[in-house]
Every structure is written in C-alpha cells, then in structure tokens.
Amino acid sequence: MMKTIRLLLMATLMALVFMIAGCDNAAPGSQPTPADPDNKLVEQSQSAGKSTADPEPTMQLVVYHATKDAMYLVPETHKVPVNSHPARTAMELLQEGPKNSELVGVMPTGTKIKNVTVKEHIAYADFNDKLVKKNGGGSASEILLVGAIVNTLTEFPDIQQVQILVNGKKIETISGHMDTSEPLSRSEKIIKK
pTM (2 decimals)? Predict the structure, then answer.
C-alpha cells in the first residue's frame, strides 16, 4: 500500500514538474496578453501594407485649384508621406499648383506659407506678403484664391474656419473684393460638381 501511495505521489509530482517545465519553456510573450492582440494586428497590418515600392506610410490630402474659365474650384487628391503638419503640407501643395493640366493654380507667384496653426477649430494660415503684393486679379481670382485656401484647410475634420494672415497679421482684404479680416467658412457653391 505504501508503495502504491509513493508511486502515485511520485507520478503526481512528475506531472506537476512537466506542467511547470512546459510553461517555463514557452517563449516569453508568446501567449498574447489582452493588450497584445491589438498591437500584433496593427504591426501585421502595417507590415502587410508595406511594399518595396511604398516603404513609408502615406496620407491623402485634398487641395482645390481653379478651372480654366475661373468659375469654379475642383478638388485634386495628393498622396504624400505621413507627417506631423498635414495642414501646412496641403498649403504647400496649393502653392505648387495643380497636377491636372485642365486646372490652374490660384496662388500669386512667390507666395509662401509661413505657418499654419489651429486653435479652437480655426486654422490661422500665415503667408508672406506676396499673397497681396503679387495678386493682380479681379474679384473672380480673389474669390477663387480665398476659396481654395479655406476649402483646402476645411477638408481637415478639426478645422471649421480659416483666418488668412500676412506676416502674422490679419488683413482687411487681398485685392479689395472680399473681407478677410475675420475667420472664413467653407464655400461649397464654388466647387464644381
């Protein structure tokens, strides 16, 4: 009887040792913790989305340019590398002009974006003085210029209005046809459908 108890005790201890050894041999972190599956999925989806032709993550920005008849704005989508200042990048793309040869740029020559900041859903777009000094257009070009700036920036969900600045200061108007002294809202009317 003693021999049977001893064998049973020894078998139980051996089973316990194997169970513990089995747990110890598992690679650290191989069993997902509750927070781990999400991280693994993100890592897998990021690595699955990467290819040799497109190694870095990208984002899409919508920029508005004018039609050749100076009647409407048309959205143009740009795929650019992800960065920490997408609103500024959108303004730089607006400065560069359209990719589509059927559209025309609205920014006066030499205009540069100095800064874009967002506070309380208002974007403050600060340009150099070329925005005013090199703008030789009439009312249509001013409406398209202001509309392109405002509509491009209000594509971002956290921006509802845009205050146009020149050298850090509010301006009354760009070329005398529109009041730009206060934040402006998006204009859907000038977007070609």
Answer: 0.71
